[in-house]
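Collaborator request, handled under Task 6.
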Amino acid sequence: MNKPLGVLVGIVVVAGVLNTAGAWYTGGKIESVLQTSIQQANQELASQLKGTATQGSIELVSVERHLYSSTAHYRLNIQDQASGPDAPPVELLFVDNIEHGPLPWSRIKTFKWLPVMAVSNYSLEKNTFTEKWFAATKDQAPLKGQVTLGYDRSVDGHMELMAFEASMDDKSSISFSGLTMEAQTDAEAKNIKAKGYMDHLKIHAASLDKPPALIELNGLTLASDLNKSTYGFYLGQNVLVLSEGQLTFGVRQSVLGVKNFEYTGSASANGSLLSGRLTYNVGDITLDGKPVGSAQMVMTASSLDIPAMQSLLQTYQSKFQPQVDGTLPQTPLTAEEQARMQVDVEKLLAARPQLALEKLTLKTANGESQFNAAMSLAQPASFELAPIEVTKQMVTALDAKLQLSKPMIADLSAVQAQLVGQTDPQAIAKMASANSEMAGVMAVQTGLAKVDGNNILATLKYAAGEVDLNGQKMSLEDFINAMTTRFGGVAAQ
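Structure tokens returned to the collaborator:
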């Protein structure tokens, strides 16, 4: 044997011995790793589902250990209390072929030679609940994926929902292109990055007493970049983008279409204070193929006290959130709970939170309307003061502005006429013009706005006990009296 070949054989033999030793070591640890991961997953499920009507848990049913691989079986139970207390839980079964590290064969053959603890190849198994799903995918596992577990407990995962077409009954059907998800997390899932894509989903539903409805979604992209906060929930950014969607509904089978829909949500924390931003964009809205317009909304919040919000949410969930049957809980607040709520509200206001609707825009073919508002809050000296004094101290600033386009009102009136079946173009145009003019007249008559050309304008500012309504300044007491008198209420005392 020549020297280079001998060296190569020696390297291969040593690598094989090390891989066998590593696989034995990993195989010996795999069950304890799985139990730890499942325990963490159940804690996270309980945390994320808290306050909802849904409960879920994962169970490790069995593990069969071999030298280079192991086979694990899991059971996922989901209980939806909204279906009633006697409804059986949904049971999903999974089988997992786990390749032991440090060099699983699935990574070697794809030239990924960085040592890892294990590679998990999981898939959904057929049972009573999933047998129709399996039938729709022609007996292929409708859900499957692969997870790579690093020695630092980092996770790199891929999940796939298989495409299928199925008839739910003789009048309803579903067509699904499939969905793929990629995700990466570090140890204990403190940082998560994920992205997913679905090409199309079409759901056609009909019943004897309702007109058929058709929902179509095309080109759906999901993405998240999240970090777990010290308070147990995730901060960061979520994005959802939909290329195109359609809803066919009603007796006339009207078709509402949207294109280039985008949602972005972000949240961050500075110490115990939370800030967030939500943005919605719709690039194009149509009705029965005719253009309607586009829309945008941006909402923000800052300086929200996290512990106070969590405590108030817990009280709401236990005392005020509607039950499964829609009724409110009958147990009244105890004196201790009332005192805690007041402390939480005071803490929330002491942080001087700021809330804003930064932008609400609707644009049609002939006009564009905008609205924005911002409000700053503070803790009053005492809630025992007169309501007007509490309001003065609690609302430190308010600034709102409205620009309502009369041509836009006319455009939307024409859309409304189209929805109710009006087809005469002259009648539609006449009604749309009348509605836009009536809006201007009503705004002026109520004193809430003024008309400037084709726009209805209104501004409202408040600070230090003084209100400025469309340039007219008055005290907060006078403003409340004017509004209640104008709209038939009782004047403030």
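The cover message to the collaborator said: "Residues 387-486 form one domain. The chain is about 30% helix and 45% strand. Please let us know whether this matches your experimental observations."
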